[in-house]
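Subject: Predicted fold for Hpt domain-containing protein, 108 residues

User T.R. writes:
Posting the sequence so we have a shared reference for the thread.
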Amino acid sequence: MSVLANKTLELLPASILPRLIALFASTTPALIAEIQQHAASGNLLAMAQAAHHLKGSCLSLGAENMAELCTELQHKGEAQDKLGIDDFIAELVTSYPVTLAALQQTQT
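User M.O. replies:
I've generated the structure tokens; pasting them so everyone works from the same file.
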């Protein structure tokens, strides 16, 4: 799976894309931290809600890989299934800078 769905980015108005990318850059670290915190405390429903929120942001910018990871975390949280959560979170943490760099690259 590619980091970005270029088709999604092409559908966004070029005039607002830089603001959307900046918003993604400024809000995503806090959402990832929230996901980590809720997972660590065992509050899987709250983790699922945070993952759902981040998934929406990712989908709106075509960040497919991150959205898929958020979907997995959301489903696991809703099912109260702790198995594999740490691995999904680690991959999400690793994917974020790569995704942000790819988004920023679209602006050059």
